[in-house]
Design a protein that fits this description.
This protein has 102 residues and is mainly alpha-helical. It is built from 6 helices and no strands.
Length: 102
């Protein structure tokens, strides 16, 4: 029997949290995606998982990069924190990280 390939724990999508962060109802997000609020609800509860194209559309409708769907809005990633910062700030951050890793 072939070995199982895949994550032991499935990735969680934070669709509901991002939708609420943006002040949208399930119906409003569904309207932006040209789908129903029932479909949005199923995605949010994990009863159905949106495919990659749908994830890209959800992210676009929420005004966030697709990768951000995999993290809670209250826990920004390094990319999110550095997004929009001046080049010198980003360079200094990378220098500090590099120094810490030595």
């Amino acid at each position: 029997m072939p070995a199982r390939i895949g994550p032991k724990k499935p990735f969680r999508l934070f669709i509901a949290e991002w939708r609420e962060e943006k002040g949208l109802t399930q119906q409003q997000l569904g309207d932006r995606l040209e789908t129903s609020d029932v479909t949005v609800s199923r995605w949010e509860t994990g009863k159905r998982k949106p495919d990659l194209d749908a994830q890209a559309a959800i992210a676009e409708a929420l005004g966030i990069p697709p990768a951000d769907l995999y993290r809670h809005p209250a826990q920004p990633s390094a990319d999110a924190l550095l997004r929009g910062q001046p080049k010198d700030v980003v360079e200094n951050v990378f220098k500090m990280i590099h120094a810490i890793r030595r």
